[in-house]
Amino acid sequence: MGQARVVVPSFAAVGGLGENDMLKWALIFAVVALIAGGLGFYGIAGAAAGIAKFLFFLFLAACAVFAILGFTVARKISGPRS
Fold first, then answer.
1. 33 lies in a domain?
2. Domain range enclosing 26
C-alpha cells in the first residue's frame, strides 16, 4: 500500500499578509476610527485607532528588520569592500 501524500500550501501561496497589506489595513482602521469618531462612536473609534497604531508599528518593525537583514546579507554576498 502506498502512503497518502499531504500537500500543505505555503502561507505566501494562499495569499498571506505582506508588509504592504499591513500598512493598508492600518490605514483602513485609521479611516474607520476617524469616521466612527466623527459619528460619535467613541468606543469603536478608540478600538480602531488602537488596532491601526499596532499594525503601523508592526509594519515599521518589519521594515526595519528586513532592511537590516538586507544590508547584512548583501554585504555577505558581495563580500567586504576594499
1. yes
2. 19-78
